[in-house]
Structure formats: structure tokens, C-alpha cells
Amino acid sequence: MNAPAAAGDIELHDTGNAPRLCVSGQWTLPHYGALAARAGALRARIGAAAASLDFSALTALDTAGARLLCELIGTERLKGHLAHARLAPSQRELLEAVATALAAPPAPPRRRYRFGDVLVQIGKATIAFRDHTVGLLGFIGLILDGLARTACRPRRWRVTATVASLEHAGFDAVPIVALLTFLVGAVVAFLGATVLASFGATIYTVSLVSYSFLREFGVLLAAILVAGRTASAFAAQIGSMRVNEEIEALRVLGLNPVELLVLPRILAMMLALPILAFIAAASGIAGGIAVCALKLDISPGMFLSVLGNDIGARHFLIGLGKAPVFAFLIGAIGCLEGFRVGGSAQSVGEHTTSAVVQSIFTVIVVDAVAALFCMEMGW
To answer: What CATH number has the domain spanning 9-103?
Structure first.
């Protein structure tokens, strides 16, 4: 059985005008206790007296020993002697790395929260919003360019991909859209009746439900549900392809990713959302009919009669006309966030979340602008 190796040592040889510090043995973690005691005993004697360093007898060195030497000798003095010291290349590199790390200035103290920090964050958010807006507008330009290039070339239409996206974005979303809007319609009718009953105008609950769902709630709720359900799917699908470098593979093959991946999804969204908006409006009105029949003694026949006589078709057309615009924006944002994904799973999750938030925000803003425009135009 081999005996354990002895700890290293350090000695100061005073030779008159040229004192020499000799480092020998193994300066490793198993011997750290003995080395620290020896270094502590010599620390006061070494001071600034050591004019030269001798590492010729050093046999082993690790990070613990290198740190102890740096603390004993001083990082600047040690780095000055390493250039001409007799050391193995690995030992010289380790000493240089440890000395550099120990000589690095400490991190500046964290500044206290100030009002200027608020302005900095506002500025960063403004710049990020500008960059996102410019990027989205540029991506919309690419989509429109792709539509123009393929519109007159039926052989380049990706019918199968469009139908598959239509099924996923449209038909699969019908149950959740119908159920949610039915319940919202019932809530709107109940709240409207609660307020209007005090004025003896319960019959106007029919107009409240009809106006709200034909013009606003039907298309808005359908768009929000599609934004949370489909925009996230688009971002995750394209983002996963980007992580797996499938997008780059398409470009290497000379194929246009926008034409292959984006256009079928955009077209499917623009076909699916008007259908979902119609279903949402019909379900919301059905919810209102149910509440009126059960609580307000307004029969379904009377409800539909008031709806047909007092509510013009233009309200339905205005609501339905916003659906393709919402669909285009939701699809563009979802696909764009997919292309922005980096090379990690975390990036996929972040951009998927961003796609949902941006889509819902954009839909609500555009709907508010459209409502103000229609009000000013008297529509």
C-alpha cells in the first residue's frame, strides 16, 4: 500500500541582496490545512522581501493551492514572476487564471431605486414596442408579397395544409366558442334585465343582447379565444421547427418558409374566424333567449320578432366584417413570434406566451378603434 504524498512546503532563503522564495511539493486540496498553517507562519516574514520565486520543486497544483499562493505572495507579484518561472504549462495557466480572478475589481454596489430608473424602464419599453411594431409591419409586408406571388399560380397553393389548419383553427374550436358565448349571452341578458326592470323596460333586453353580440361580443370573444388557442399553437409549431433547424433546411432547399408555413395558416384563419364569429353571435343570442324565456316572460318567438324588426342587418355585417382583419393579425403575430424563437425550449415558451398576449392586445385595440370609427360615421 502506497503512503500518502506529503504536503507541499514554502521556504524563504535569504541570500543577502536577492532573497528567494522556494515553493515545493504538492499544493493540493488534501493538504490545504497543513499548507495554510505553513503559509500563516511565513506571511509576516515574506511581506515585500521576496524578490524572486522558485517553482522548480513544485510537483502538483490545484485551484485550492493556487488561491493560497496568490493570497500569500500577492496577485500582482505572482503574475509578474510567472513569465520566467520554471513551471509546467498547465500550472502556469492555472496560476494566471486564479490570479486574474482574484485581482478582478469587485462588482459595483447596486444602486438604490431612483426615479431615473423608472424613466429608463419606460424608455426600454418604448423602444421594444417600436421594434415589435416595425417587425410586425415588415412581416405583414412579407405575407402580402407572398399572397400576391401565389394568387395567380394555383399550382403553388398548399390546399392540404390550408384545410388541415382550417380544421384545427376553426372546426375544433366550435364547441368552446359556442359554450362560452352562450354563457356570456345569458349573463349579459341577466344583468341588462336587472337594470332595465327598474325602469319598466325589460323588453329592451332583447336589443341589448342583439346589439352587443352582433356588433361586438360575438366577433371579439371568438377572436380572443382563437388568439389564446391558435396563435399560441402557430408560435409553438414554427418555434419548434426553428429550434430543430427545419426552417434553415427549407431555405437550403430553396423553399420560401413564408409561403410554405405562414400563408396556409393565415388563409385558414381568415376563413375560420368569420364562421366562428357567426357561431358566437348565434350562441350569445341563444343564451339571451334562454334567460328571457325563463326569467323575463319573453318567449323565443317574441325575442326573434323584436330582433328581426328592430335590429338592422348592418350591425351583423359590421361585426362580421371585422373577423377577417382580426384573423389576419392573429395569424401574423403567432407566426412572427414562432420565427423569433431562439435555440432553446425556454425561448419557445416565452414567444408562445408573447404571441397570445400580443394577439389579444391587438384585437382589443383594433376593435376599440373600429367602434370609435363606426360611431363617428353614424353606422
So the answer is: 3.30.750
